[in-house]
C-alpha cells in the first residue's frame, strides 16, 4: 500500500511468479491482520507438530542439499549449518512453540488520549503486512522467520539460498499444510519461486506489494539489497564490535569480558573485533590481555604501541602489525585488532569512525567514564562492564529475534515481535469536523 | 554510521560541496546528541528572536525570489505560498518558541528491565543523527524543519526548491548565526549547496553520512527520492482519502463530515478524494450529498449508479462519469470521486485497492460496522464519525509535525518529535559474560 505508485493490486494478476506470490501474500496478509491471538497460536502449534510428524520428509530433502553441497566442495562448516537432524528439527519445533507462548503485539494500544475537542485518539499496533526475508544457508531461519511473521500477523515471502532449496521447499510445504489445516490462508507462508538472482531483484522492486525486506546474511547480500531495493529495507547484522578498557578498570574483569566478547563464538555479529586500551593502563593490562588472547588462539593485529608492548613482555601472543583496513574489518575469526588510545574520548572517536554501529563495551570502575561512554557512543547497544555477546533477542528477553538491525530507522538492535509491526491511528468522534 | 559500507568518515574531506556539508553535519550531530534540553531550547529561543530582529534581511531576500517567480509566470497560488510577510515571520518565530516548549524526546527510557542474570537493560531514545529534508516552495518549512530537528538533537540538511533559494539562504544564515551564538555548532543547520538536481542526487547517495531523507512535496519528487535513494527514506504526504457512509448513518452528520473532509481545504493531503456510499442508503443520502457538494463548488466523478441517481434527483450538482483513473487520483481540487458499494466489505475492498493509505473515514451509527471498518482498513488513520481533516500533528496534540508518513516503517501518520529519534540499548553489568 504505497502512496506515490499506482496501486499494484489494481493490475490484473501479474505475469511474474515472484509478483504473483507477492500478490497472494498481500491478500493473505489482509486476512491475517484482524485475527485474534488464539487463531495464530493454533496455527503455530500445528506447525510445530507437523515438523515433528513429517521429520522424515524434511530430512530426505535436506540430504539432497547436503549431497549437492559436498559435491560442490562446500566447506564443512557451511555444510554443518545446512544440515538438519531429528534433534535439530525437534529444537526448531520447540522454538515455534516458544513463539506461540509470546504475547501478541498486534492490537496493543501504544498511545491514547482524549483530545481537547472530545475526539478519542488511539495509536494501535498493526502488522506490517508482507515481510520479505532474504537469507543464506541455514534452513532453520525458514521456520523461525515464518513463525515470527505469523505471530505478528504478517504474511512472509521467504527467499533462502539456492543451496538450501530442497530443504526450504520441504519445510515450506509442511508449514503451508499446517497453516491451511488450522484455517489460516496457506499463502501467508510462501517460498519465493525460482533460484536465480532475478527473483531477488523482482522482490526488491515489489514496492506496494511487499512492505519490508530483511536481508540476513553476508555483507555483500546486505549491501546489494540496501543499494538496489525500492522496497523499504532493514539492514541487519554486520558487527565490528569494540571492547574499550578504561584507565580505571578491574583488570580481571577486563580480561574476562575481552575473551568472552572475542572468543566465546567468533562467527557471530556480536563478537568483538577490536580492543582499545587507555594508555595509562596499557602497560599493566596488555601483557595479561595478550597472554589470554594467545591462550584462546587469537591473533592480534596491533598498532605500534601494542606491537611494542607485546615484544617487551613475553606473552606468547601472535601479534602482527595492523593496517588501516584492520580497524574496519569484521573478522568473524580468531583475530582481533588492538590499539592503545590516549583517553576515553579518543576511544569514542576511534569507535565512531570505524564501527558498524552494532555493540561497543567499556570496562571501567569509574561512574563518570561509564556515563560519558554511554552518552557519546552511538551504536545499537552500549555495554558497561558486560560482554558484547549479550546483544541478542534471546538474551534481552524478547523470546525470539528476526535479526539485529544496525540501522536507525524503524528498529535498532535485536528485533522481536513488536519490531515486526507498524501502527495506525484510530480517531473516534461523534460528528466532529475541523474548524480550519 | 552504516554497517556494510566503508566508513565515510575515514575518507579525507570529500570534494563535493554536498558531501562536505554532510560530513560537517555528522560532526555537529555528534555534538548535539548528548546536549541537555536546556541547551537546545536556548538555541531555539535565540532563533525565534533572530528571525524577528532580522526580518528586513529575510524579506529582502524573499522579494528576489518572488520577483523571479512572477517573471517566470508562476501561478499566484504558488507565489502566495512563497511569499513571506512580517506577520508570517512572526508566526514562524512563534512556532519555533512552541517547539522549544515541547518535551525533549531524547533520553526517554522506552523500555527497561533487570534481566534474570542481573544485567540492567535500558532502551533509550537518541537522535537519528543527520536528517535530510527535501522540500518544495514554502520557506517556512526551512525554519520548522530546522527547529524540530534541533529540538530532537539532530543536525539537518535542508534542500529547498531553487525557486526559494534566496529566501532559504537568508533564513539559514539567520538560523546558523543564532545557533552558533547560543554555543551550539552552526553546522547543525545547513542549506544543501547548489540549486541543481545533482545536489539532490548526491544527498540520496550519502548513506552512512545522512541517516534519513524526508521528501516533502509533490508526488513526482517523492517518487524520485523513494526510487533512487540508498539513504533510508520516509515517504510522506500523498492522500487519496475516502469517506464511507454506511447503511446506518446519521445523514446530517454524514453530509457535514463529507463537506468538511472534501471542501474545507482542498489542497491538503488529508482532504477527502473519494466518497463511498452503501447501496441501502444511496437513494436517501446521495441527493442530499450531491446538493451539498454542488453548493461547495465540488464536481463529482461518479460511477454509474451515482450518475443515475444524480440525474433522477435535481440536485444542481455537476456530475461526470468516473473512469478507473478517478479511483486513484488525489485531486487536491474541488473534485471528488463517488461510488455506490454493495456493503461495508465492498467499501473496504475498494479502499484497500485504491487508497494511498493516508486516512479513511466511516460515518455510521452501528458499533459493529465501526469496529469492522477500523479492523479491516489499513491506513495511517481510520476515523469513525469524524472528518478526515483531523490527521495532523497539531490536531493530534503533537505540538508540531515534520510531515505525515504514509509508509509503515519507522513512523506512520503525523510525525512529531519522537519520530525524529531512534533508540539505543544500554546494558549494564558488573563483569557479566555470556555462557554460550
Features:
Aldehyde Dehydrogenase, Chain A, domain 2; 42% helix; homodimer; 436 residues; Aldehyde Dehydrogenase, Chain A, domain 1; alpha/beta; seven-stranded parallel beta sheet; 15 helices
Annotate the secondary structure layout.
Two copies of one chain form a homodimer.
Chain A: H1 17-32, H2 37-53, H3 55-71, H4 76-82, H5 86-101, E1 109-114, E2 120-127, E3 130-135, H6 140-151, E4 155-159, H7 165-181, E5 189-191, H8 197-205, E6 212-216, H9 219-228, E7 241-245, H10 251-263, E8 272-278, H11 279-295, E9 299-302, H12 304-312, E10 318-321, H13 324-327, E11 335-341, H14 344-354, E12 359-363, H15 367-376, E13 381-386, E14 403-405, E15 413-415, E16 421-432
Parallel strand pairs in A: 3-4, 3-6, 4-5, 7-8, 7-12, 8-11, 9-10, 9-11, 12-13
Antiparallel strand pairs in A: 1-2, 2-16, 14-15
Helix pairs in contact in A: 2-5, 2-7, 3-7, 5-6, 10-11
Amino acid at each position: 500500500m504505497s502512496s506515490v505508485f499506482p496501486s499494484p493490486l489494481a493490475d490484473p494478476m501479474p505475469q511474474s511468479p515472484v509478483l504473483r506470490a507477492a500478490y497472494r501474500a498481500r491478500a493473505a496478509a489482509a486476512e491475517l491482520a484482524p485475527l485474534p491471538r488464539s487463531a495464530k497460536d493454533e496455527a503455530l502449534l500445528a506447525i510445530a507438530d507437523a515438523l515433528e510428524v513429517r521429520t522424515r520428509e524434511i530430512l530426505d530433502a535436506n540430504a539432497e542439499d547436503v549431497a549437492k553441497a559436498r559435491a560442490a566442495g562446500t566447506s564443512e562448516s557451511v555444510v554443518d549449518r545446512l544440515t538438519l537432524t531429528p534433534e535439530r528439527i525437534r529444537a526448531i519445533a520447540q522454538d515455534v512453540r516458544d513463539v506461540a507462548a509470546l504475547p501478541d503485539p498486534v492490537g496493543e494500544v501504544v498511545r491514547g488520549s482524549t483530545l481537547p475537542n472530545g475526539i478519542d485518539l488511539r495509536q494501535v499496533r498493526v502488522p506490517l503486512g508482507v515481510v520479505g526475508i532474504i537469507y543464506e544457508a541455514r534452513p532453520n531461519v525458514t521456520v523461525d522467520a515464518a513463525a515470527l511473521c505469523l505471530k505478528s500477523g504478517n504474511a512472509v515471502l521467504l527467499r533462502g539460498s539456492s543451496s538450501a532449496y530442497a530443504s526450504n521447499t520441504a519445510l515450506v510445504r509442511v508449514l503451508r499444510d499446517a497453516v491451511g489445516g488450522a484455517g489460516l490462508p496457506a499463502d501467508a507462508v510462501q517460498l519465493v519461486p525460482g533460484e536465480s538472482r532475478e527473483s531477488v531483484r523482482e522482490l526488491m522492486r515489489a514496492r506496494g506489494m511487499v512492505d519490508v525486506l530483511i536481508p540476513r546474511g553476508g555483507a555483500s547480500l546486505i549491501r546489494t539489497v540496501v543499494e538496489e531495493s525500492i522496497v523499504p529495507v532493514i539492514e541487519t547484522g554486520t558487527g565490528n564490535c569494540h571492547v574499550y578498557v578504561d584507565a580505571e578498570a578491574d583488570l580481571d574483569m577486563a580480561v574476562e569480558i575481552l575473551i568472552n566478547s572475542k572468543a566465546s563464538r567468533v562467527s557471530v555479529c556480536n563478537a568483538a573485533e577490536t580492543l582499545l586500551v587507555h594508555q595509562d593502563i596499557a602497560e599493566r593490562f596488555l601483557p595479561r590481555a595478550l597472554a589470554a588472547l594467545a591462550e584462546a588462539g587469537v591473533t592480534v593485529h596491533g598498532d605500534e604501541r601494542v606491537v611494542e608492548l607485546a615484544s617487551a613482555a613475553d606473552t606468547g601472543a601472535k601479534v602482527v602489525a595492523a593496517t588501516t583496513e584492520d580497524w574496519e574489518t569484521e573478522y568473524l575469526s580468531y583475530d582481533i585488532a588492538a590499539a592503545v588510545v590516549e583517553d576515553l574520548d579518543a576511544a569514542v572517536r576511534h569507535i565512531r569512525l570505524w564501527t558498524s554501529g552494532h555493540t561497543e563495551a567499556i570496562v571501567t570502575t569509574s561512574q563518570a567514564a561509564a556515563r560519558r561512554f554511554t552518552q557519546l557512543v552511538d551504536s545499537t547497544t552500549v555495554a558497561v562492564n558486560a560482554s558484547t555477546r549479550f546483544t541478542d533477542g534471546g538474551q534481552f528477553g524478547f523470546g525470539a529475534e528476526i535479526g539485529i538491525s544496525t540501522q536507525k530507522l524503524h528498529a535498532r538492535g535485536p528485533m522481536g515481535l513488536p519490531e515486526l509491526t507498524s501502527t495506525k491511528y484510530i480517531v473516534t468522534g461523534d460528528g466532529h469536523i475541523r474548524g480550519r
